[in-house]
Design a protein that fits this description.
disordered C terminus; 34% strand; 18% helix; alpha+beta
Length: 301
């Protein structure tokens, strides 16, 4: 099963307990490593600007954190074997292999990652909901995020880093949802996510941030903090392919355009050249006629 390229809807199921977010929850500063407890990503206004932050509920008083200053550690307590079931073929991982899984249902020994659209100012200003879009993953392996409503329901794939295109899904306003996050190998992962919305005012807002993961006990959180993101996000699918950005080739939706543009430009130039030749020919003919009419008469016999 593969994720579709059209926006999915991920407002349900919402297996996590109900929560509300106070308008005065502070934004913490300084580096933090979150390895257990409840964590969400979600839109928030900071000084009037729309952005994407990490809602840290791992302590008694929840706070918001910048993704630049936060590492989400997925410890070896998250290791699980891939089921021997065709329903999980979308993972692209051999059955029986042990991989790191942040589960949809909370494991007290593993960081519990979800998303919410519950900031009070966000709920007051957005029109119906927001879109979360996976733009790129840079890491040692693949990342897959999916929902599953009970043990007998088919998985709903939301994000696959093995897919070659951006992958959006829709989140209703006042939503709080958790999902399964599957990392194929240990290491540092940089996951670039965009959150966008239409506001009630008619304005469109969008922000892009990069989440930092340190997967596996042997992975250094210092390395995760130091990982550079200033070159821009790696296109989705590139980590799995192991190729460079250039090797992936241009996007499919842009490849026919240059040829059309060149042909159209050539046609315009050819038309302009023919018009110019015709005008010059007519001008030369008129000048010749004027010269004949004004020249002296031929000698008489």
């Amino acid at each position: 099963m593969a994720a579709t390229q059209t926006p999915a809807v991920a407002g349900q199921p919402a297996p996590s307990p109900g929560q509300s977010i106070a308008a005065d929850q502070p934004i913490a500063t300084g580096r933090a490593v979150l390895d257990t407890g409840h964590v969400d990503i979600g839109p928030r206004y900071v000084d009037g600007q729309w952005t994407l932050l990490i809602h840290d509920g791992t302590q008694q008083r929840p706070v918001w954190r910048s993704p630049d200053e936060t590492v989400l550690r997925v410890s070896d307590a998250a290791l699980q074997a891939v089921p021997d079931d065709p329903a999980y073929a979308f993972l692209g991982i051999d059955a029986g292999k042990r991989v790191h899984v942040v589960p949809q249902v909370q494991n007290q020994d593993v960081v519990w990652i979800g998303w919410n659209t519950q900031d009070p100012q966000v709920m007051q200003t957005i029109d119906r909901g927001a879109t979360l879009n996976l733009l790129g993953v840079r890491g040692s392996g693949t990342l897959t995020t999916f929902l599953q409503a009970g043990n007998f329901a088919a998985p709903q794939v939301l994000w696959r880093s093995a897919e070659p295109a951006a992958q959006p899904f829709w989140v209703e306003v006042n939503t709080h949802t958790h999902a399964n996050w599957v990392f194929s190998t240990p290491g540092v992962y940089l996951v670039t996510v965009q959150v966008s919305a239409d506001l009630i005012s008619g304005e469109k807002v969008s922000a892009t941030r990069t989440l930092r993961f340190a997967v596996g006990d042997a992975t250094s959180t210092d390395e995760a903090f130091a990982a550079a993101v200033d070159r821009g996000p790696m296109p989705v699918g590139e980590a799995a392919a192991g190729g460079s950005r250039d090797a992936a080739g241009p996007p499919d939706d842009t490849s026919p355009l240059p040829l059309v543009v060149v042909l159209a430009g050539a046609a315009l130039l050819l038309t302009a050249g023919l018009v110019l030749v015709l005008l010059r020919g007519r001008g030369a003919k008129r000048r010749a006629e004027r010269e004949r009419s004004t020249s002296p008469s031929e000698a008489q016999p």
